[in-house]
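Internal tracking record. Fields below are filled automatically when a chain is submitted to the structure queue. Please do not edit lines marked as system-generated. If the sequence contains nonstandard residues, flag them in the REMARKS field before resubmitting.
Queue: standard
Priority: normal
Entity type: single polypeptide chain
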Amino acid sequence: MAVLGKPKSVTCTCYELGHTWTPSCLRASTDVLVEVLKQALKIYGTLYTVAGILKKRDLRYFKEKLLREIAQSVLFLTTNGTLFISFFCIWRKLLGRFFYSTTGFVAAASASLTAILLERKSRRGLLAIYMANVATETAYRMVLSRGWIKPVKHGEVLLFSIASAIYLYFFRKGHLAEQTKGALSFLVGKDELPITEREERPNHRRHGNALISRLSESSTFQRINKSLQTTPKHFLCQHSHGCVHYVTKSFIKMFGLGYLVQGGVKLLGALPRIYRNPSAVWHAIKHQDNFKLGAFLGCFSAIFKIVNCLLRWLRNKDSEVHGLLAGFLAGWSMLWYKSSTIALYTAYKLAEVLYFKGISKGLLPYIRCADIIIYSISTAFVFHVAVFEPHNLRPAYWNFLLKVTGNKFGTMNRRLLVPLYKDAARIAPDFWPDYDMRYTSLTKDSLLRRS
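SYSTEM-GENERATED OUTPUT FOLLOWS
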């Protein structure tokens, strides 16, 4: 039976606190393994297949590498989920009780360290940045809920703007890795790169989209396009036509892309409901999030370009410093599509860029296995919060944990953790597991009497 011990520990069994659906530790680990395995196959099977198609991988990749990559990532995620509940029980048996640190952080750190070593090295950095992102947002939610700080209005937009300013300054200087430079070139074009960094490619006419072809051939379109092309252009501007055409074309292109991408995501989400509710397709196509993402991407690209052009006109010279101001102002386009996830991810990627620049200049030490350390600590912290205060997790991530474990994470008896953290049961204050009374004598009444 559970007995509340000293304030820093509780002496309940792992059945009473953790795997409340079964008294067997081995069965609990097996149940979680099956649930995580099923979800991991869905997640990585879909992700890698779609990514392979979008990247136009050849047939050899699909025959030889796809299944291996899926299997390795599935093994990683399944191991992480399964070993967490396993170490949860192991630490309880070794120490005889649950301590604040071992209930969540230590068990999760042990599982995460083992799991990340099974994942491909090329993916460890991305996973580390993603989990550091989640951990940072979680920590922010925790201090807000405790009243230690007040929320910063548009804080995620400000963070994104600062990161964008530094990124686009390096972009103007041509001091970015090829992958990052390619991503920013796609977003804002190559005309603001140094001449030595640009690659001239032949301009092939595309015939793939009949609607776009007809539109571009219409007399109205050609008349408007020509009038925009003949607008003034500063002699230092590297783009082919007038500045107004340069900015307008960029906005339309990125707005359309953002609308289509978000619309595609909404449409995929609506597919299961189409049979029962055909109008779900129309609602997905016209969803306001489609417009918001389009406006965000379109405004980001257009503002960056218009500020660079204006500064060339006003100062009569070009400078990489223009990228700082242009990037900062462009970052405020996130007001259309606020996302702490995007803001934090951008900031962490920038920190990675600055860190490696510091290493190359001999200013910072190289830390071996930094991605493994960051992933393990960040994941352990997030899982610890998921045990003690899931109300402070990002709702989407908490729902992910519930889904990937078959709701097992939600069946913990967090009322037993109240001596360790007073708000532990806030997310489900009335929840009480359906215990098999052959393996415990713990009841609501007995808990109330002891507390």
